[in-house]
Amino acid sequence: MSDPYDAILPVMVNTYYPPAPSATRCAQFGKAVAAAIRAFPQSRRVVVGSGGLSHTKIDEGLDADLIRALTKNDQKFLQTMESSALVEGTSEIRNWIVTAAAADRPATIVDYPPLYRTPNGVGCAMGFASW
Q1: Per residue in 77-101, pLDDT tens?
Q2: DSSP 8-state class, residue 95
Q3: CB 66, CB 51: distance < 8 Å
Q4: What values do phi and psi take at 7, rounded to 5?
Q5: How far, in Å, CA of 44 to CA of 56, rounded?
Q6: DSSP code string of 18-48
Q7: CB distance 107 to 73 below 8 Å
Q8: Is 84 inside any structural domain?
Q9: CA neighbours closer than 13 Å in the CB half-sphere of residue 89
Q10: pTM of the model
Q11: Which residues contact 35 (CB under 8 A, 6 or more apart)?
Q12: Which pLDDT tens digit goes with each residue over 64-73?
């Protein structure tokens, strides 16, 4: 970093262990992160989200619904995802909800490869997007 006033603020979201936040709480947190970084004096601000889509047992239908919501900036869909859909391998979708709420604009999906390891659907679906 060339500017000694550049700041990096790592943020972790508990996506797996109870009590994990609801989709609504994740969206509220994303909006709070956005408000906080807007207050930074620097003109360049970046939010980076990291997390898988469905994995362990890939659910391409759930992933397609999520991708559709991200590309349309459908905050209502994202905020009302049931906690029962965000368990085990899909729990990292919470990170996507936080990032989408912080961006508050339609996402551009760069790639979505569902990477299967076994014939019974075990694997990891990877999503890559920008806002």
Answers
A1: 999 999 999 998 899 999 999 999 9
A2: H
A3: no
A4: -125, 140
A5: 37
A6: SSPPPHHHHHHHHHHHHHHHHTSSSS-----
A7: yes
A8: yes
A9: 17
A10: 0.90
A11: none
A12: 999 999 999 9
**Do the beta carbons of residue 37 and residue 6 sit within 8 Å?**
no
Q: How many domains does the chain have?
A: 1
| Residue 11 falls inside a structural domain | no
SS3 of residue 102 by DSSP: helix
> Is residue 31 a part of any domain in this protein?
yes
**DSSP 8-class letter at 2:** -
Read off the tokens for 106. Answer: 């339609």
Q: Which residues constitute the domain of residue 73?
A: 23-37+50-130
- Locate 110 and state its tokens: 């760069």
Q: State the burial class of residue 113 (Cβ atoms within 10 Å of its Cβ: 0-12, 13-18, 19+).
A: exposed
Per DSSP, what are the bridge partners of residue 55?
124
Q: What string of DSSP letters covers 76-91? A: HHHHT--GGGSSGGGT
Q: Which residue has the tokens 């408000």?
A: 35
